[in-house]
């Protein structure tokens, strides 16, 4: 007997059930996609980690809030670099705050071809290698180099041959780079020339200032040279750099600079110990009117140097001034800076300038004259900041004047600018001189926590035994015992 | 609700009255132990700036455990019932299809959590040997387990779906493993020499499990991955329910 299998449902009913399932699945897919599109557009993020993953500084948030164009951030890094995790974590926090940031990680060790393409796109020289983070928006590019991202502790270098990374400065530098991209047209910085000053186009290792020029351009500044052949300083000069003139300025030139400063000008003035063996430049006398005497001596720190000969000075004592506040854990590498002395301002000024020392020697500081006489001793300043608030002259409001005077200029030369926190000092000084308070203070270096484990060989053996044998083995044996009890 | 709880208990019993559940948990513990011994060896030589929770979740061991355990845990949920002949009895009992699906999912999820729970103990043991107590942050640990739970939910719901679709347990396990591996491979954007751009890049970033897990392990909470994993879990469970219903009326 041939019996046809009987269907529970007719074909039409089966088709209807199938169609119903299909439609409901399609509806579920639509709901899934819609929910996730909404979620991607309206989301919230927060840190539950507390201290180990701090939020961004208010200044960084302000800079991120001001970004209104797409910024491509290329992290050209070897992922094994110790700085990489700090960089990626910081960028992740920044991306969460600004959807305009598009981050791409390019590991040039694993993907050399991709790295080469990035280099070519950004016109980087083949010799320009190393880890860096590149910020690019429209026609502007800012580069933050890995070497600038960390602060190191060298105290155990000689005894234990170790250099510890103690702080991460990424937030400060990334915010600065972003600011450089979103800032309006670049302002102009003039470097005075004509008296043997250090030249921003000079690539000489020791005296050249080309690296300083590059750093200033990364701050969205246009750097030009200036020869005082007219009676005024150009109207677009927002900052005048006078770096180590080796021959005196004429009295007319000094008067032009004095006039520029009294009308709210900004100046970074630098000297070197070698100027002690030459006649005064004329700037020294002018600065006395602003409350600073540039000593005819150079500083030696007895804690670092037994000799009176001019040599390297590592300065790590800072005041509370906004320029040096972020450098509290850092040090500067200088060469026998001339000392600074605070004096009463020269003229009977109704609006006297305020002079604040920026950095000092330690308590063992000595000001040594060219004849090797000890003129002053103690904690002696090597740089000062001068500020005179804006006022009104003949019914016209004048902006405030700001001057930074440093007893050394070699520390910003091509070779030394990368030493310790020298470039940070230059950047912070310029930002303060240009009233870019947004980029000062508030974003200090973030201390790096370093975790180490100390297990003896015996402890390591015990842990291995516990993790690989005792714990999984106990669970397995317990299961075996249950199985045995049930079976027999 | 009562029926649901009875079914959950039945599921847990199926794991822990037989040797299956114990074997699974001890296998997970062995792999977790292996990864910790590896991390300890590295940290004993070189200091790190990342807390211990972050150390573990970037290792290949973690993803290996996740990709392997979900198929093994879930392959038996429906496929085993069918091969053992208990499926019809279950389906004709006075319970809804969604109660059956949810109970099977909850049972597997509980086994999954039990398997991961000793991880907290491992982390505490490791932190005892550290120079800094903050190597283990309780809040970070909580967010880490939150991430584990969310990602695990997706894998387990996928496993339930595969088990409902397949007749054989092995096929169910292979399908789950394949789906999980596919989802995991989508996450590996960092291995792409030329990263995807535009909406493809955004999509890949949105579904990147490795990046999400790293963020959870750091204590960085974000509603996007939470919604993604919760919605995917609900979606797969819904599909499973529809498959179970379809089989009932087929």
Could you describe the 3D structure shown?
The complex is a heterodimer of chains A (488) and B (250). Chain A has 488 residues and is an alpha+beta fold. Chain A folds into 2 domains: 50-153, Glutaredoxin, CATH 3.40.30.10; 185-447, 3-Layer(aba) Sandwich (Rossmann fold), CATH 3.40.50.880. Helices cover 30% and strands 25% of the residues of chain A. In chain A, the strands form 6 sheets. In chain A, strands 9-8-10-11-23-20-17-14 form an 8-stranded mixed beta sheet, with helices on both faces. In chain A, helix 2 (58-66) packs parallel to helix 5 (170-182). The model of chain A has no long low-confidence stretch (mean pLDDT 84). Chain B has one domain (2-249). Helices cover 78% and strands 1% of the residues of chain B. Chain B has 13 helices and 1 strand, in the order ααααααααααααβα. The two termini of chain B are 27 Å apart. The interface between A and B is large, with 64 and 68 residues.
Q: Quote the CATH topology of the largest domain in chain A.
A: Rossmann fold
- Given the structure, what is the number of helices of chain B? 13
| Average pLDDT reading of chain B | 84
Radius of gyration computed on alpha carbons of chain B: 19 Å
Uncertain stretches of chain B: none
| Quantity of strands of chain A, as a count | 24
Most extensive protein-chain contact, per-chain counts: A-B, 64 and 68 residues
Which homologous superfamily in CATH is the superfamily of the largest domain in chain A? Class I glutamine amidotransferase (GATase) domain
Shape of chain A: globular
Instruction: Tell me the fraction of residues in β-strands of chain A, as a range.
Output: 25-35%
Instruction: Estimate the strand proportion of chain B.
Output: under 5%
* Coarse morphology of chain B: globular
Residue windows where pLDDT falls under 50 for at least 5 positions of chain A: none
Q: How many domains comprise the coordinates of chain B? A: 1
Q: End-to-end distance of chain A, in Å?
A: 49 Å
Number of helices of chain A: 10
Number of domains of chain A: 2
Helix content of chain A: 25-40%
CATH architecture name of the largest domain in chain A: 3-Layer(aba) Sandwich
Based on helices, strands and strand pairing, what is the structural class of chain A? alpha+beta
The N- to C-terminal Cα distance of chain B equals 27 Å
């Amino acid at each position: 007997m041939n019996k046809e299998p009987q269907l529970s449902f007719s074909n039409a009913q089966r088709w209807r059930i199938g169609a119903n399932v299909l439609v409901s699945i399609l509806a579920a897919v639509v709901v899934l996609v819609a929910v996730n599109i909404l979620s991607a557009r309206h989301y919230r993020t927060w840190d539950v980690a507390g201290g180990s993953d701090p939020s961004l500084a208010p200044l960084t948030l302000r800079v991120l809030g001001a970004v209104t164009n797409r910024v491509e951030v290329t992290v050209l890094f070897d992922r094994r670099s110790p700085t990489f995790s700090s960089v990626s974590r910081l960028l992740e926090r920044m991306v969460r705050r600004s959807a305009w940031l598009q981050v791409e990680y390019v590991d040039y060790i694993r993907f050399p071809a991709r790295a080469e393409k990035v280099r070519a796109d950004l016109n980087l020289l083949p010799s320009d290698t190393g880890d860096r983070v590149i910020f690019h928006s429209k026609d502007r590019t800012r580069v933050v180099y890995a070497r600038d991202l960390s602060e190191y502790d060298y105290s155990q270098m000689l005894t234990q041959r170790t250099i510890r990374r103690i702080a991460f400065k990424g937030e400060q530098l990334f915010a600065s780079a972003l600011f450089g991209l979103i800032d309006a047209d670049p302002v102009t910085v003039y470097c005075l020339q004509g008296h043997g000053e250090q030249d921003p186009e000079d690539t000489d290792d020791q005296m050249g200032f080309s690296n300083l020029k590059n750093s200033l351009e990364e701050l969205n500044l246009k750097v030009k040279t200036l020869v005082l052949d007219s009676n005024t300083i150009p109207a677009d000069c927002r900052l005048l750099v006078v770096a180590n003139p080796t021959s005196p300025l004429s009295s007319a030139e000094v008067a032009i600079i004095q006039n520029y400063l009294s009308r709210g000008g900004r100046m970074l003035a630098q000297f070197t110990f070698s100027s002690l063996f030459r006649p005064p430049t004329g700037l020294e006398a002018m600065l006395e009117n602003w409350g600073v005497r540039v000593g005819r001596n150079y500083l030696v720190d007895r804690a670092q140097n037994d000799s009176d000969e001019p040599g390297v000075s590592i300065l790590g004592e800072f005041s509370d001034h906004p320029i040096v506040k972020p450098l509290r854990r850092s040090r500067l590498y200088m060469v026998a800076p001339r000392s600074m002395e605070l004096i009463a301002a020269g003229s009977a000024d109704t609006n006297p300038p305020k002079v604040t020392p920026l950095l000092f020697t330690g308590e063992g500081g000595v000001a040594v004259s060219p004849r090797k006489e000890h003129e002053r001793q103690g904690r002696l300043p090597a740089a000062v900041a001068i500020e005179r608030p804006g006022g009104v002259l003949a019914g016209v409001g004048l902006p405030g004047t700001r001057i930074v005077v440093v007893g050394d200029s070699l520390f910003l030369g091509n070779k030394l600018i990368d030493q310790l926190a020298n470039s940070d000092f230059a950047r912070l000084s310029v930002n303060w001189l240009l009233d870019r308070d947004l980029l000062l203070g508030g974003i200090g270096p973030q201390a790096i926590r370093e975790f180490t484990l100390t297990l003896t060989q015996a402890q390591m053996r015990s842990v291995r035994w516990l993790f690989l044998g005792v714990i999984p083995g106990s669970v397995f044996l317990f299961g075996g015992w249950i199985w045995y009890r049930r079976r027999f | 609700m009562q029926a649901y709880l009875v079914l959950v208990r039945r599921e847990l019993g199926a794991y822990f009255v037989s040797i299956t559940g114990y074997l699974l948990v001890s296998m997970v513990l062995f792999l977790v132990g292996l990864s910790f011994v590896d991390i300890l060896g590295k940290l004993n030589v070189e200091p790190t700036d990342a807390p211990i929770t972050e150390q573990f979740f970037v290792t290949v061991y973690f993803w290996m455990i996740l990709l392997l355990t979900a198929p093994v845990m879930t392959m038996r949920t429906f496929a085993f019932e069918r091969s053992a002949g208990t499926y019809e009895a279950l389906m004709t009992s006075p319970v809804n299809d969604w109660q059956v699906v949810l109970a099977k999912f909850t049972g597997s999820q509980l086994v999954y959590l039990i398997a991961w729970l000793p991880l907290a103990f491992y982390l505490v043991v490791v932190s005892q040997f550290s120079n800094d107590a903050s190597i283990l942050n309780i809040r970070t640990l909580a967010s880490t387990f939150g991430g584990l739970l969310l990602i695990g939910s997706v894998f387990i719901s996928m496993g339930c779906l595969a088990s409902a679709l397949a007749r054989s347990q092995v096929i169910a396990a292979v399908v789950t493993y394949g789906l999980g591996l596919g989802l995991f491979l989508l996450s590996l954007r960092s291995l792409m020499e030329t990263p995807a751009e535009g909406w493809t890049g955004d999509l890949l970033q949105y579904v990147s499990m490795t990046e999400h897990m790293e963020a959870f392990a750091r204590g960085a909470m974000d509603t996007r991955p939470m919604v993604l994993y919760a919605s995917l879990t609900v979606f797969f469970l819904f599909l499973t329910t529809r498959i179970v219903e379809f089989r009932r009326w087929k």
